[in-house]
């Protein structure tokens, strides 16, 4: 069940797409990844019996914590609790530092790669703005992208249909239990279609038709117009196009995010152009 702030669209986009924060679900998921691929390799109490993990901890103490190596407790229970306490109390960005350090210093490359792949699935599921790329934690969602979505949600608040489509696109994208990337894409493009209909004052116009009329009123860059005109296929009733979309197996978070950001930016662009041209929406 969605909470009040989610239903009303009051939760900041920046916190939905975790760019400078980390909620408990994401932190828990990353810790569980460490448990599965590293900590669970220690089956007994005496840490020195587990060469790879013991070596990893020595490197961790030496180069990450910057502590004397002889302060590592040989009884795994105590060392485990010390690491766990740090992980769940450190700032969000240190969690990324920590998992990146582990993935680059454990002596078995195959385990590290599996760990990074598993982490990426958690990062995608929990809508983190970061991924492992080439062994490094890399930001894949920028402040500019976030600001475009937030601006579009704000400037379309007087335009109910447009705003509803944008909120639905974000909601479908950010549903961590059951994300619907395909319908998020449709909602993003439907938001563009809705603002175009308002600008040309023709409720029955298709996106393609509305873009042509807008181009007559306030000339659009030809390449930009063509790009969004081609997106009409996603909301078209043409059976072949719709059928192809519904059966596309590889739509991902990145696809839906790209469409939401692009459509948000285009909506902001159209509203600004219309206002400057003196067109009342």
Which strand order does the major sheet show?
1-2
Radius of gyration, CA atoms, in whole angstroms: 24 Å
Number of strands: 2
Beta-strand residue percentage: under 5%
Distance between the termini: 35 Å
Biggest β-sheet: count, sense, barrel?
2 strands, antiparallel
Q: What would you say this structure looks like, in words?
A:
This protein is mainly alpha-helical and 281 residues long. The protein folds into 2 domains: 18-139, no CATH class; 143-276. 64% of the residues lie in helices and 3% in strands. It is built from 14 helices and 2 strands; from the N terminus they run H-H-H-H-H-H-H-E-E-H-H-H-H-H-H-H. It has a two-stranded antiparallel sheet. A hairpin with a 2-residue loop joins strand 1 and strand 2. The longest helix has 24 residues, at 253-276. The model is unreliable at 237-243 (pLDDT under 50).
List the helices and strands and how they pair.
Layout: H1 4-7, H2 13-16, H3 24-37, H4 51-64, H5 76-89, H6 92-105, H7 109-125, E1 130-133, E2 136-139, H8 143-155, H9 160-174, H10 181-200, H11 207-217, H12 222-230, H13 239-246, H14 253-276
Antiparallel strand pairs: 1-2
Helix pairs in contact: 3-7, 4-6, 8-14, 9-10, 9-14, 10-11, 10-14, 11-12
